Amino acid sequence: PAQAGVQKEKHARPSYPEKHKGRRAMTEILTAIGLMFLLEGALYAAFPRGMRDMLGKIAEMNDGQIRMLGLVSAMLGFLLVAFIRLG
Questions:
Q1: Best exposed site among 5, 42, 65, 76 by fewest CB in 10 Å?
Q2: 16 in Cβ contact with 24 (< 8 Å)
Q3: Are 27 and 21 in contact (CB under 8 A)?
């Protein structure tokens, strides 16, 4: 039961002591990598033929096209994370 006049924050992050800031960053990085593997694995499991076809199309692209695809993908990922984190 909450005390009268005291409101709890709905989505407060746990506070980490200064000595654990590096651990928090590493945890977030490893979580992001785990999510990447989860999503990629789910795509291969759900759409094996489509993923094979897509990889074949990527293999036919030149380096500049692949580089641009990677940069656009990285920018979209960055913007998504920034939008989520910054509100």
A1: 5
A2: yes
A3: no
Q: In terms of pTM, does the model score above 0.70?
A: no
Alpha carbon distance 48, 53 (integer Å): 9
Q: Residue 18 — left, alpha, or beta (φ > 0 → left; ψ -120 to 50 → alpha)?
A: alpha
* Residue pLDDT, tens place only, 40-74: 999 999 999 999 999 999 999 999 999 999 999 99
Residue 1 pLDDT > 70, yes or no? no
Q: Answer for the pair 43, 51: CB distance below 8 angstroms, yes or no.
A: yes
**What count of Cα atoms within 13 Å lies in the side-chain half-sphere of residue 76?**
6
- Of 35, 34, 54, residue with least CA distance to 44: 54
